[in-house]
Amino acid sequence: MPNSSFCVYQIRQHFPILNQTINEHPLIYLDNAATTQKPQAMVDAVAAYYLHDNANVHRASHHLSLRATGAFEAVRETVKTFINAESIKEIIWTKGTTEGLNLLANVLSKGLQTGDEVIISALEHHANIVPWQMLVESHGIVLKIIPLTAQHDLDLEAYQSLLSEKTKIVSVTHISNALGVINPIKEMVRLAHQVGAQFIIDGAQAVGHQTVDVQDLDCDYYVFSAHKLFAPTGVGVLYGKQHLLEALPPWQGGGEMIKTVSFEKSTFNQLPFKFEAGTPNISGVIGLGAAIDFLRAFNRQDLIDHEQSLLTYTEKALSEIPAISVFNPGGIKSGALSFAVQGEHPSDIAMLLDAQGIAVRSGAHCAMPLMAELNCIGTVRVSFSMYNTLEEAERFIEALGKILEMLK
Question: Are the CB atoms for 325 and 340 separated by under 8 Å?
Fold first, then answer.
């Protein structure tokens, strides 16, 4: 495992995938907002489970199951500490952010009536739009949208004007996946609570780039995905305040989430198992624990400062190129930034960068309403992580310059 001193080149040694060439160029991976690469320690933890402890959890008394259960449940404590939850009962395993948001929309809908209002923002990923739109169809709720300012930040004055006694839920991203914008989420939670609304935070982009303290935020629910936190795909976390989760009905029925079953009636398990029907992604959870342990071995502020320096350098360099428009210029961002090239399709720019070994993301980033708000078909998104270097950022700018020269 690494020591606590920060050196990006030492960090890179823990990510074997980075040591390869793409199209005869050294790989530069700048698509971390889509998924992060995986440290060897995480891969080893998943392999060790399958090689030595492979068994189902909670349901057997034999030794392999006991070992697997112990490792699996230890990660709940790890996540609790990582986000500063109050109890392990507040940590629910999901398949990812999308499932966490759908779970909440489903169970919270039981308490909604026609005319009740849900507020989301113009910065949201489709996963934080579509589940609420489905409730407009099925429950007659009113969905309201926080607009953007001219700088592509959320309009907080408009947000306050949307809040009322009819507001039951506010669900907003912590950090925009498309633009990297950091929302003033703590203040937004405070304002929502003043009108008695519950607040959900989509933390998919935040947990890998910021220190998250759910008690300090005072949010009611916080969801995120493991694969954006150096861990496997197909696993995620739903945090909820214990008293709120206890009052909610289960989402899915099956094994694990029940206490007793008869043909006449079933009774449900206690938290957190009430929301965890069926066999979970055991190896994924174990991998998440190993990824968090890896991350916590470093000084988190050093990592945040390093990523921010790459973001600042890249935004400044892009802003000096006349053909490029950066979205949310000079705004408070983390992890990612988006830009457009005048007269060029973002996918063409991404493909030409890939030809030089540079992986970026292009398109609507599962945020079509935001693209419509920005009046563009899509953007090129550059997103950084702990293992990216200044040299990579410089090479990206150099490669982009060559592309623009070629396209003249």
Answer: yes
